[in-house]
Protein 1
Amino acid sequence: MKIHPPSIFSYLVVIYSLSFSLLVYTSPTAPNDRPVTAIAPAAWHSPVHYQLFADQLHVAGLSTVMLQLPSCGSSNPRAQSVANDAAFIKKFLLQPSIDAGKRVVLITHSYSGGPGAVAAKGLSVGERRAAGKPGGIIGLVFISAFVAKQGQSLISGSGGQYAPWVIQYVSVLCNSCT
């Protein structure tokens, strides 16, 4: 899969996110007490699309972790799912920082809002504190993201059918990958 350079939309997301994040994070706390920013990219994005944002967070003294989702650019897209991406986000994007006792802000964009919300379940600071564990998620940021009610999918929440353009696009995408 060819990765395209960041679009103007990506830069707008970066500017919006940076503004929000700096307002939330700027505090006189010690650098070791600052939260980690975990970024879950959108479906057709890779970490390169968020690098400008990550660089600015680094300049502000904040650490950032971001990884490409397994479903992005997969050689076998039919084997991918929201559940797979959620497990990946939890295991590789969130759990290492949280298990190290860090507080984490998870930023999701577009598609990753769904698997990001699933991955975050049970990892809040409050839930972990109640279990006698340090660290946890202190915030979720959804940028133009999809989020379904618990127990529902985006399909069930929108009348039970994909829009015609989704069927056509996914069909073309999957057929071109086989």
Protein 2
Amino acid sequence: MPGHSTARSPQCPFNILPKSKVMDQNLGQGHMAYTRKIPFDNCVHDAYMDILKTKIITTCRDIRHIILRAKIFVNYSTLYDVRRLSLPRLSSVLPSPTYHWRFITISANALSAFLPGQSLPRGYVDQLQLFYTVFKFYKLRFRSIEDLNSNGSNNKLFGNLARSDGFTIGFLFYTRKIQTKDSTLMNSDLLLDDFDLEEIYAGYLPIAIDPGRKSVFTAVTGSDSRKVKRCSIKEYYHLTGSTKYSAKLQRLKDQHNITDIKSRIPSNKTSSLAQYQAHTEYIFINLDALFKFLRSSYV
């Protein structure tokens, strides 16, 4: 175009709006973000399944290896530099490396890099088209791409961003901010004098809730004939499935000899360089077994 060499200026007719501007124009200021998470194998088209899953799992694996080795190297170097200081012996002076499977963020640029021969998309619409080509958005109850195209009256828009570990995937969406109803009842400040004695006897029901320490909550209803409702910590864990999951995880650890491996790990709560080196050597000897177990396919 005459007068300028790029299309970055908002006055340029070929200017491409950034994603934040697209969201503000269609969903208004203060829009909210949320994530929809589904199994990876259920949402990718067959033509892209093998190559995309392989790329994501390989990337997650490499990131986990790099982060673990970097943390161990930094911890070892820190102990080497401060070995002349009197450091505590019974507490961990350094962060403990984690062996868990990693997630990666899939942007439009990363997705185009994972797919051979795919050009880099520019702008919200082109990036949305790339995601829609690869993923089955009807699994998320979007029948066509028209439901996601920005038209000024959208209630939801896709953020052109996802996070995956190769086994599950979470899609980032934006929605309009929930408008609170500006009613007289919500803005009124009621006092005790606003009620007469008959209304209090007919409709007043005191409810007291205490979070407690040994229970999630304890609720007391009524003043004369009190009714007590409580949810204990054990009931909470049972309702959320934590106890069943912990038992299942422990069985898997026993089957794959992980319990024995973890029980023999030398402590990293030390200021001794030799003891931390023994901890590091043991970790690297059993690293493959730990990495194999701490995958999403097991845990």
Protein 3
Amino acid sequence: MAKSSKRRRLNDPGNLSPISTSLSQESVLITDDDKREWKGFCEIESEPAFFNAILKDFGVRGVKTVDNACASVALLNIVNNVSSLELGDSLQQFKDFTATFTPALRGDAIGNFDHVRSIHNSFAR
């Protein structure tokens, strides 16, 4: 397995050139070139409109996102697509119930899945 590296922010003062380090972090603007050349993934806001725009830029059409649930939806996608995992009763029932749904209907079902929403919201600050 590859050695994991420490996650760094694009606008981290440790990642700036010597000229930029003399400026306060608030005054350093990240250019479009900086964003294109960055080898990692920049941290972005968890904003449904951003994810809709990203999907559009990916070339995906006819998809809508569930408000403020991106990480939970990503986790559901992962665990529901690994057949060797043992799911809890609620997740297994959801998977069985939505097995014949279209992706769009399954997305709507996630938005109405009280069990997942309750766990997701328990981590709200």
